[in-house]
Structure prediction request, 197 residues.
Amino acid sequence: MPIIYKNRKNKTYYLHEGKTKTGKPRYFFSMKTDGELVDEIPDGYEIYEHPSNAQVFLRKKQPRLVTDLEEHVVQKYLKKLGTNRPYMTDIKAETITIFESSHDPDEVREVYGPLLKYRGASERESLVQSIVAESSHYMPILRFILEDEKDRQFIVQRYCFRGSIDDWIYIDGPDPLEKLAQHYIKHLGQESFFDLV
Prediction:
C-alpha cells in the first residue's frame, strides 16, 4: 500500500522514490500516481506539511527541544481567543511559531452569503470551513523561542510587517512560557498586536 497523505487543502499526495545524479534514493511527494511509489516511510524521515502553503515534504526527522506540555500551553491560549480566524502552530527545534490564516470564516460567510443562503445550516458551515481550509495561506505572526533549556525560559517575538523591517522583533522574556503565552496570545487578531514592542 503506497504512502498517501491528504493535506489541509484536501489534496492527496503520494510518496515517490527517485534517484539523485549519484544514484542515491531521493523521496518526494506528488499528486500524480505514476512513477515508483513508496510503501513505507524510510527510517529517520517524517512527513511535513508546511504551515504557510500546505506543501507536503518528506524530510529528515527534526530535533525537538520543545516539550508536549509546552506545546499544549500555547494551544490552550489559542483556544481561548475570541476570534474565528484559524491559527496553527509549527514546532522546530527550540521554536514554537504561531501562523495566522489569511481568511476569517466570518468574512467568507459575508462574501459567499448569497450563494449559501438556500442551503441547510450544517451544509453552509461545512462549505465555509472548506473554503477557508482550501484557500487560506498562513503567515507566521508570533513565536516563542526556548532561551534556557535547563530552566525552561522562553523569549517571545512578533513578526513586524513594516516595509522597512519585515522581520521578527523581540518583545519580552526570558520568562516561563505560561506567563508569556497568557500575556501575548490574546493580542492575536486585535489592533493591540501591532503595538507590541
User: Anything to note?
Assistant: The first helix runs from residue 68 to 79.
